[in-house]
Amino acid sequence: MIMEKSIIFANDIAEISKLAQFIEEIGEDFSLSPDVVFNLNLVLEEAVVNVINYAYPKEEHQSIYLSAKLLEGSIVFVLTDTGLEFDPTKAPDADITLSADDRPIGGLGIFLIRQIMNEVKYERIDGKNVLTLEKRL
Question: I need a labelling partner for 21 at 20 to 30 A (CA). Which of 11, 47, 97, 106 fits?
């Protein structure tokens, strides 16, 4: 059985509380463990905050779409926005061997996403960023 759920956010940091609530609901609806829900919340908050902070000019109000689909043995999230093109799969891994003071700013969120999710795929389709994140359960 395939279960699906989706939500639309404004590109406003105040919307992040809606994301946490959405992930909690998915956890309940899809019977996910608290550990999985925690990790999904971490990953999706990182991805959505990056879109809010970097995809659009500050004064531009746009929507960010997130869908979740429970498949056989995995959960797949698709994050879609119409912001500036950015492929996080091409970003270099953060060098976590460096101290926090020596490490350049940025890149840790993408590193975290890659560590937690089993598959991270990016496509640019019809002027939209489409980030697909899969976690095997």
Answer: 106
